[in-house]
Amino acid sequence: MSEILQRVWLSIEAEFSDIRDVEQFTQMALRLSMAAILGGVIGYEREAKGKSAGLRTHILVGLGSAMFVVIPLQAGVLMTDISRVFQGLMAGIGFLGAGAIVHGDKGNRGLTTAASIWLTAAIGASAGMGRESSAVLGTILTIIVLSLVRKASGRNNNITQSAKSSKNSSETEEPKISLVS
């Protein structure tokens, strides 16, 4: 019985041997944590605006994207073959984005949410590759676009709305006929 338990233990130990040392554990924990945190930052902004894909969705997209990159790298997949991982990842995230667009109301609803999900995947993949500085920069730029550009866009929409309403009111007026010759 002791020999069987020892063999079972060795099998279990072999299954958990993908992280060989403290350095590798630290590297993996840092990359995955960064992906989750940065995805959470973007998700928090989306959730605060009441969008359908919020905090949890963006955390999971960032973390999942990092996992899809970290695991092949850890397994020794060549960098040239990682491009296939990126292609599959971006195509899969495209389906999530399409769901956000279809879920939105009529018109252009959901496009920005789809784009934020797509960017979160890229940021997660960047963190998974060990490019944490690039991931942080990407997150900062994403937040700038989502929050500051929204304000500028809102002002432009107000100007456009005013121009359209004044144009519509001038079009609806009855033409004036002059009887003076």
Task: Give the H and E element order.
Answer: HHHHHH
Question: Helicity level, as a percent range?
Answer: over 70%
Mean pLDDT: 83
Number of helices: 6
Could you say which structural class the secondary elements and strand pairing correspond to? mainly alpha
The radius of gyration computed from the alpha-carbon positions, rounded to a whole number of angstroms, is 25 Å
Main beta sheet: none
Sequence stretches where pLDDT stays below 50 over 5 or more residues = none
Net shape: elongated
User: What's the total count of β strands?
Assistant: 0
Distance between the termini: 117 Å
Describe the 3D structure.
With 181 residues, this protein is mostly helical. It is built from six helices and no strands. It has helices at residues 2-15, 22-48, 55-74, 79-103, 111-128, 132-172. Helix 3 (55-74) packs parallel to helix 5. The longest helix has 41 residues, at 132-172.
Protein traits:
181 residues, mainly alpha
Briefly characterize the structure:
The protein is mainly alpha-helical.
Walk me through the topology.
Layout (H helix, E strand, L loop, with lengths): L1 H14 L6 H27 L6 H20 L4 H25 L7 H18 L3 H41 L9
Helix pairs in contact: 2-3, 2-5, 2-6, 3-4, 3-5, 4-5, 5-6
